[in-house]
Amino acid sequence: MKQLFMGILLVMALAVSSSPVHAAAKPIQIKIDGVVVASDAESEIKNKRTMVPLRMISESLGAQVEWSKQGIIITKKDTQIKLRPDSDSVTTNGKTLLLDAAPYIKNGRTMVPLRFFSETFGCGVDYKDAVAAVDCGALVIRDTEIETMRHEYHMTMGGVVRQMEGNALNAAIYDAFIEHKGGSVEAPADYSWMYTIDVLGSYYKAGQYDFLDADGNSVKQYDIYSLIKAFPAELLEGRPEVLLHDVTDNKWYLFSDKGKEIISEMIDTADHYGFLQVISNTVA
């Protein structure tokens, strides 16, 4: 009788543990422009709203995040969001709004409502099963939709070619080229992929950025060149440190070091969140 009673208890325990009521909630998967975003913090549903890590969603949409005493500031082009954790009051371009789900901190991450951030930055959100898909629309250059951006850089021995998905990030990088491009200049006397010190005032290509259409054709290519500083500073006086080559139109421009830094950071962001795919790597 005792064995029969224990058997009944075991069956009941198994039935309860396998019940849908006690099943673990399926994590929310975030897709941005068709790419499953990699994140070290899981998104979750709270008060019927999808909450995502602030830095992940902001940077994946090409925005910059800054923490200050006044709160958190998220900026992308002419759109700026200011908020504080645990406050449902948020300021967008100077206009105060009330969120239906206040940001909060969990495991060291600030969680924010996905739909508000996506739509504020001009993207749509669609839900299906446990997937939240954010669609930002394609970058258009010369009346052509851009499918991907190919990034190439070289080292002493070999080079790396990577392909970047993500409409929002591609658009943010393209905007950075436009925003930080200076006046036109003549092509330098010496420039190449190689870091050589044989010619005074020579430039090496720090990176190649090629915006491609759906068929893989180049619509716009920019190359960033940096001055080789292997000479005393007085000998290089008057030479710009960074140049931009518009390969498509074969024109040269001054380019800011800040622009170079911003683009490099966005490439790192794309790599961190899974938007970059290595096409080839010949680095020894």
Automatic annotation (TrEMBL):
It comes from the Bacteria. The keyword Endoplasmic reticulum does not apply. Keywords: Signal. Residues 32-130 form the Copper amine oxidase-like N-terminal domain. The keyword RNA-binding does not apply. Transmembrane segments: none annotated. SUPFAM superfamilies: Copper amine oxidase, domain N. InterPro entries: Cu_amine_oxidase-like_N, Mao_N_sf. Residues 1-23 form the signal peptide. This is Copper amine oxidase N-terminal domain-containing protein. It comes from Paenibacillus nanensis.
